[in-house]
Amino acid sequence: MSKFLAVFGATGKQGGSIVNYVLNDPELSQKYKIRAITRDVNSEKAKQLKEKVEVVQGDTLNRASLEIALNGAHAVFAMSMPSFGPDGLEAEYNSGKTIADVAVEKGAEYIIFSTLPAVKEISGGKYANVTPFDAKAKVEQYIRGLHIKSAFFSPGSFMENFQPQSFMAPQQAPDGTWVMARHVSPKSQLPLIDAVGDTGKFVGAILAEPDKYESKTFCAATALYSLEEIAATMSAATGKTVIYKQIPLDDFTKSLSFAVDIFVEGASFSDEFGYYGPDSKKLITWAAENARGRLSTFEEYLKAHPLQLA
Asked: How far apart are CA 259 and CA 160, in angstroms?
């Protein structure tokens, strides 16, 4: 008999990837019956999901809705949304904690949580404002202390974030070239993941062998790419000149429209300590080797999803 897998963020990149992966995997589709949890069951994406799986309403600000959504769930994929207010860390932590508490209360046996590295801890307090990372890391530590089996998915930087209109996309310069500008070294490395295409391959590995991966963290990315490699890959894929330019910190700060401290310190942290800390390469290699399926390279991602640089 199939066991219920409750998936938070099912209309988004991570949750949606897991839903599609499980539905299309011969083994997992028999093992699990999906219950997609979303805040708005009437959104267009939720309506499309209803054609494939059960969709229920669940909001971390409404504990009663979670008690209904998680009733009878065997396994839960949980994630927390960043909060950018002055109490952002605590707000996000409390939302993740609430999901975990209700999951335990309702008898779930396994939680897979979408976490991120503990930037403040790894940097010895040097970078203390990357709250979306630290909030998730705090939720992870809380879940590890609960009486429930758990594993963790820690995604790298999304390949999707380089598409036009997104924060990391290159901008056209007056001379017609396209420039990706940051304040950090061109050799600075980012782990890249095709979030929509590959999240399910990492989480699917855990779902297929939950005991094997209990307490493990998948530092989920295809590989590490330097910023200059990322620019060169975009250039080759588009046939346009895309370059990486290291600019003064003040100039980078002025180029940001929101969450300035988070983006500035996040980039500085990754440059100085490594996205996942000093063992980033080793951690990423292990996760990629244990993923359930071949991962997309950045080159392949851009071929499948061409950058529209106009």
From this structure: 19
